């Protein structure tokens, strides 16, 4: 790697659960969503658009925004409707993953040129839907939820569909999101998570979002979290998603589900940067 182009990494002792940068960055409206701008375009290389998964907002990519801005790349993260600082209105409980796909498409329109779209967990599905509607420079999937039409995909028990589903508690954050110690203070995450639309969750749990097997027409990377939970990410599922769309696949053995703010989050950021440079210079 060219040292002159290497990103300036945060202090290794910095708290990975400190998301305060997200409160300082400029924002921009994008349809029903909101963009958090890490860095504007600087050259002809495609920038990155980060899309969060269930319960999360653009804040969860605070470290990535600093990292990729330092690497000289345009980058932004998206609050889809009802997340981050956005209002959850009366229509929020009926929001679907198709609606979130429209939010991603609107964000791509606001960026005005094709970007590499990065989707985490449930956020992989609206990213893939948007890539069927808009030109994208590339796709990166982080511990992705499976498309409903992926052969062998496993459904999960649905949640009640009348009201928003409360965000996971601290115990689940520690065990499933971070694979960390049971006494770790995760209040910085708990305070920022939002309730989720039950229709969004059931779209994912009941495998209601079909993407189709046709090529997307852009290069892609699927990063699997080696410490992910097997009830939602059984062995072989992430590799099957990558194979279905012709994407590269890699396992980050020591990373949990929320690799973008887990300890050693730099491992996933570095894998994305290495792939981006291989594709676009």
Automatic annotation (TrEMBL):
It comes from the Bacteria. Residues 48-261 form the AB hydrolase-1 domain. InterPro entries: AB_hydrolase_1, AB_hydrolase_fold, Carboxylesterase_BioH. This is AB hydrolase-1 domain-containing protein. It comes from Achromobacter agilis.
